[in-house]
Amino acid sequence: MSQARIIDGKAIAASVRDEISSRSAALFEASGVRPGLAVVLVGEDPASQVYVRNKDATAAACGFHSVKHTLDADTSEADLLDLIGHLNEDAAIHGILVQLPLPGHIDESKVLRLIKPEKDVDGFHPVNVGLLTAGERDTALVPCTPAGSLVLLKRTLGDTLSGMNAVVIGRSNIVGKPMASLLLQESCTVTIAHSRTKDLPNVVRAADIVVAAVGRPEIVRGDWIKPGATVIDVGINRIPAPERGEGKNRLVGDVAFDEAVGHAGAITPVPGGVGPMTIAMLMANTLTAARRQLGLAEEAALF
Ligand SMILES: NC(=O)C1=CN([C@@H]2O[C@H](COP(=O)(O)OP(=O)(O)OC[C@H]3O[C@@H](n4cnc5c(N)ncnc54)[C@H](OP(=O)(O)O)[C@@H]3O)[C@@H](O)[C@H]2O)C=CC1
Ligand SMILES: Nc1nc(=O)c2c([nH]1)NC[C@@H]1CN(c3ccc(C(=O)N[C@@H](CCC(=O)O)C(=O)O)cc3)C=[N+]21
């Protein structure tokens, strides 16, 4: 059986980061302003700490002004809202990201709604959700993981996805729903599957494009994949790996990669697929946000 092409998310993310770095340098040259990103982390979830460190380091590598606010897990909602109020008014900060999930005593939607939509580089504010859903993607800030997934699809399949059958598994506000909106805007025929979907394997078998965002290790099996389909595996699942030594873990996606590679035309690996693209698109959104706040023209879109 033929082997799928492996989509190199790491390499594509590096090329996006290079483009952002040179655009950011040009902005600094012309206006003396560095795009400013504030990342807020509440609590000490080890996985979140890794991502936040990554975001901070990548922002610095792109020539951004980058600040990280790490708050105790028992920080009050009022104190978090107060910090966001200050970041909203800080002219050196163009993008604000509050790492999710938040501790249970904090109302997530209250926090996300307080972020000024023009600084909402995660694209989670209702204004940005509305713009994306209304088909006005170019004036919105689009959530990073779906945006990065679309870049990978276009680098793999070319710019035209029109008429393709796309199945998105998962309907979260972070990944599934905005991914479906983007694919619909690309004129795909979009199906959104979730935990109540009947006969998921046969729904997936109709897909030219599969985006898996479930959070269940290897739930999507190889024989669900239509021969030649393009598979974007968003899932990041940490599972025990005793073969690597006692107490060790490894990352797997939502797709059984070793099986799917014999059916798909192209597939993203985990790690090294969507993850690095998410961080690259966060940088792209921060630069876009900075230019808009400075009243500068939009640059060529990355997807
Ligand atoms: N690479 C990256 O940059 C990122 C990766 N992720 C990863 O992506 C995955 C999904 O994240 P997220 O969207 O936040 O997760 P959520 O838990 O918010 O959503 C999961 C979705 O999967 C659906 N689902 C759960 N079980 C099944 C099942 N058995 N069959 C079909 N659908 C099912 C749920 O359905 P229902 O709505 O009915 O409950 C839900 O819509 C996770 O592994 C996460 O770590 C997330 C963000 C960024
Ligand atoms: N407000 C908010 N915005 C987010 O975008 C957000 C969030 N909260 N909470 C958590 C999820 C998860 N997420 C990832 C980002 C990068 C990788 C990533 O870089 N992954 C690498 C390496 C992973 C590793 O080695 O641990 C890879 O897949 O190759 C993964 C997952 C962003 N999220």
From TrEMBL:
The keyword Oxidoreductase applies. Pathway: One-carbon metabolism; tetrahydrofolate interconversion. Residues 143-293 form the Tetrahydrofolate dehydrogenase/cyclohydrolase NAD(P)-binding domain. NADP(+) binds at G170, R171, S172, I236. It catalyses: (6R)-5,10-methylene-5,6,7,8-tetrahydrofolate + NADP(+) = (6R)-5,10-methenyltetrahydrofolate + NADPH; (6R)-5,10-methenyltetrahydrofolate + H2O = (6R)-10-formyltetrahydrofolate + H(+). Residues 7-122 form the Tetrahydrofolate dehydrogenase/cyclohydrolase catalytic domain. It holds the Pfam family THF_DHG_CYH. The keyword Transferase does not apply. Its EC number is 1.5.1.5, 3.5.4.9. Keywords: Amino-acid biosynthesis, Histidine biosynthesis, Hydrolase, Methionine biosynthesis, Multifunctional enzyme, NADP, One-carbon metabolism, Oxidoreductase, Purine biosynthesis. One of its GO terms (molecular function) is methenyltetrahydrofolate cyclohydrolase activity. Belongs to the tetrahydrofolate dehydrogenase/cyclohydrolase family. Homodimer. NCBIfam families: PRK10792.1, PRK14186.1, PRK14188.1. Catalyzes the oxidation of 5,10-methylenetetrahydrofolate to 5,10-methenyltetrahydrofolate and then the hydrolysis of 5,10-methenyltetrahydrofolate to 10-formyltetrahydrofolate. This is Bifunctional protein FolD. The gene is folD.
